[in-house]
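Deliverable D4.2, example record:
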Amino acid sequence: MDQDFIRFGLAAFVTLLVVVDPPGVVPIFVALTKDEQPARRRKILIRAVLVAFGVAVFFLIAGRGVLSYLGVSVHAFAISGGILLFATAMPMLFGQRGGMQAPEGNERGSMGDDISVFPLAIPMLSGPGLIATILLLTSQVGGDPRRLVGVAVATALVFLVTFVSLYMGARLIAMLGVGGVHIATRVMGIVLAALAVQYVLNGVSGYYSSLITR
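Output generated by the structure prediction step:
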């Protein structure tokens, strides 16, 4: 295989893996799904990874053109995602179920009434950082279809690693016990709130930086 293809694909894989940060999402996933049955938790995980991967592929193929057409910047994604994440973190701080989680007894659920789409898929797994990274990588493709394939393969591998990491991490629930999970929920609520504020700060600083460099 072409060395440039391997080198570029490997660089894309490492970059995307660092941005998605599966180990960092594990404790938040555990805290958000602490009240779910194992079968339900697996469905949430599978749906979250598939939706996040779909979003990544969309921005890989058409992201730059769509954002340019709509006049929306990645910084706006960061600010809006941060605000929504903060709203999710508040109930966790008091040991309650997140506002976007499925109601008790809702085994089937839809894509709009559980946590698989928000906040797991968006913005935890495919947030502003991933979108910005994919747009940056596609700008480096330079019309080379092999490089574009390399980014696509790297993206698929990253989400495969993410699925395995979250699936194994979910087993921590049984080890922690009820009390441990309640403590973890509050701690992760603080972490999630801080992450939400950081998203907003990154969006604001990125926006003003773009104005200065124009």
